[in-house]
Design goal:
15 helices
Length: 278
């Protein structure tokens, strides 16, 4: 009886801690949405006003009708780049992960260790070499400079390799006995079983690409080619900032990420559990 009471108290503290953590995480998000609907006078009111007394769409209207700040072009650029990077990186990671997990070839372990070793190199250390390569290829100030270096991923390969190793070898051998080629086994057996892990990787890649700021800042020069993070940075003025407009832009930038996560939430949870990174 005492042990049950003690366990109940411990669980209560755990839930309290989780609730407090959730509150800390969600407050800035609520404040962002609230501010995007406020007038200038309500933004700096103290104590803070969480629900605008006079809600207005002024911030959204000014954001979308500002000819000097093509927000819709920024949104479109980020969407296209993210879609291409997610699609290609998930595909290449799936192919490489399956090869390392199920195919037998000489030097497989050594190659995989070398592949993982690249994860130890900070991203910022590769910016200068990448810039030089893109310059030699004539891709500076193009979206290709943001796409090509990201079509492969050591992390994605590692993540999917961990999952493919859990696929029963008996399934692979049975398919081979029926005359299936390695490609057919990969497409017909491995990929359908790996949907949770593919969704997990897709969300990770989407978040990193959608929120990437440093690489677009380095590779892009033309305003109409900017991505959302660069566009939002421009909304933060040198001397003054229209906070309603900035929060409206930030809110719209968060919406696609939320939609993607909500749609893939079940797959994401399963993928994390099955890929050995829980």
């Amino acid at each position: 009886m005492a042990s049950k009471k003690k366990k109940r108290i411990i669980n209560s503290f755990k839930y309290l801690f989780l609730i407090m953590g959730s509150f800390v995480m969600i407050v800035p998000f609520i404040w962002m949405i609230s501010t995007s609907f406020k007038g200038t006078s309500e933004i700096f009111t103290f104590p803070p006003i969480w629900i605008p007394k006079e809600p207005t769409l002024r911030g959204y209207v000014r954001l979308l009708t500002n000819n000097r700040m093509p927000f819709l072009a920024f949104f479109k650029n980020s969407f296209i780049i993210t879609l291409i990077v997610v699609t290609t990186q998930v595909f290449t990671s799936a192919c490489a992960g399956y090869a390392f997990a199920k195919l037998k070839f000489k030097g497989r372990k050594i190659i995989f260790i070398g592949y993982l070793a690249t994860m130890m190199i900070p991203v910022h250390a590769t910016l200068v070499p990448t810039f030089m390569v893109m310059k030699q290829l004539g891709l500076i100030d193009t979206h290709a400079a943001l796409i090509l270096p990201n079509i492969v991923s050591a992390f994605g390969t590692f993540l999917l390799k961990q999952f493919f190793e859990t696929v029963p070898q008996s399934l692979v051998e049975a398919a081979k006995m029926d005359g299936a080629t390695p490609g057919r086994v990969f497409i017909s057996i491995a990929l359908p079983l790996s949907k949770p892990s593919l969704a997990t990787l897709a969300i990770f890649v989407m978040l990193s690409t959608w929120n990437d700021y440093i690489r677009p800042l380095i590779f892009l020069n033309t305003l109409n080619k900017y991505t959302l993070p660069l566009g939002l940075a421009l909304l933060n003025g040198t001397f003054t900032t229209d906070w309603a407009v900035l929060m409206a832009g930030t809110t719209l930038a968060v919406v696609p990420v939320l939609i993607a996560y909500i749609l893939a939430q079940d797959y994401f949870v399963k993928g994390v559990m099955l890929s050995g990174i829980k």
